[in-house]
Amino acid sequence: MGTICEPMIRQARRLSAEEFCRLTQREASGLYRPRSEVLRMLALGEAWGACEPEGGPGTALTVLPLGADLSAPSALRAMMGWRAAGHGVLLMPPAGRPEGLPQALAAALGRAVRRSRGGPVWAVLECTPEAEDLVPVYLEQGFVLRGIRPLNGLAPCWLFLFSPQAAREETVWVPLADWARLALWLSRGWGAVGSRPGGQGPELALCPA
Questions:
Q1: Model pTM score
Q2: Do 146 and 186 contact (CB within 8 A), yes or no?
Q3: Dihedral of CA 176/112/86/35: which sign?
Q4: What is the mean pLDDT of residues 12-31?
Q5: Are 61 and 90 in contact (CB under 8 A)?
Q6: Rounded mean pLDDT of 39-65?
Q7: Per residue in 145-194, pLDDT tens?
Q8: Paired residues of 151 in beta bridges
Q9: Which residues, at least 6 apart from 103, have a Cβ–Cβ distance to it below 8 Å?
């Protein structure tokens, strides 16, 4: 996806199904295949995005009920051992240009918190080299990285939980590229709450979650 830089964004808003489908047509993500699944996402959830100066959407995310009968929420519920999701929301990975992610994520997160009705707000991002630069954006918005696991039989995904009040003490810094060490700390119940540039790429600050 490339390096995050300052975007020229006019506004963040809810997108129509047609606008979001145009963005996902260019995505390689297996989470946005097949098209019928994307249309079901939009029927049960909402798409929020950041628009470019000419008015068209540049970046977008979908806000899905955690209890929705869709592949990604169902896989997350099964992974967490939840028989019934109750309240809660899942943010799917961004589609479109990475430069607009901060604005699109802020808009989607605001809506997700309202729709969650006090339940958890999760976000998923596929683990790809292109997406590594996007991980700090989630941490800056108040998400905590809680796991690295395949979702619905796909490639490994970063799983974030929105927790803006998470404690930031006993910090351990781990390179994002060191999956084995990172997975070990996450399996102990720690979560990544911050990031900084490092010699091997981004480094994550892990604390007891």
A1: 0.85
A2: yes
A3: negative
A4: 79
A5: no
A6: 86
A7: 999 888 766 678 899 999 877 766 778 999 998 989 998 999 888 999 99
A8: none
A9: 7, 9, 12, 50, 59
- Check residue 70 and give its pLDDT: 86
**Start-to-end CA span in the chain (Å):** 29
SS3 content of the chain, % helix, strand, coil (to 5): 35, 30, 35
Q: Which residues pair with 128 in a beta bridge?
A: none
Q: Is the separation of the CB atoms in 126 and 157 below 8 Å?
A: yes
One-letter amino acid at 61 equals: L
Confidence (pLDDT) at 96: 86
| Token pair belonging to 48 | 């929020």
φ/ψ of 26, rounded to 5, equals: -95, 0
Q: Is the dihedral of CA 196, 198, 203, 205 positive or negative?
A: negative
Angle value at C-alpha 171, between 202 and 113, nearest 5 degrees: 75
No. of H helices and E strands in the chain?
6, 11
pLDDT tens, 103-162?
999 999 999 999 888 889 999 998 888 888 899 999 999 999 999 888 766 678 899 999
Q: Which single residue is written with the structure tokens 């790809």?
A: 128
Cβ atoms 166, 139 nearer than 8 A: no
Measured torsion, CA atoms of residues 43, 139, 174, 7, in degrees rounded to the nearest 10: 90
CA 116-121-124 angle, 5° bins:
135
Other Cβ atoms closer than 10 A to 70: 20
Residue 10 neighbours by CB under 8 Å, 6+ apart: 51, 52, 53, 55
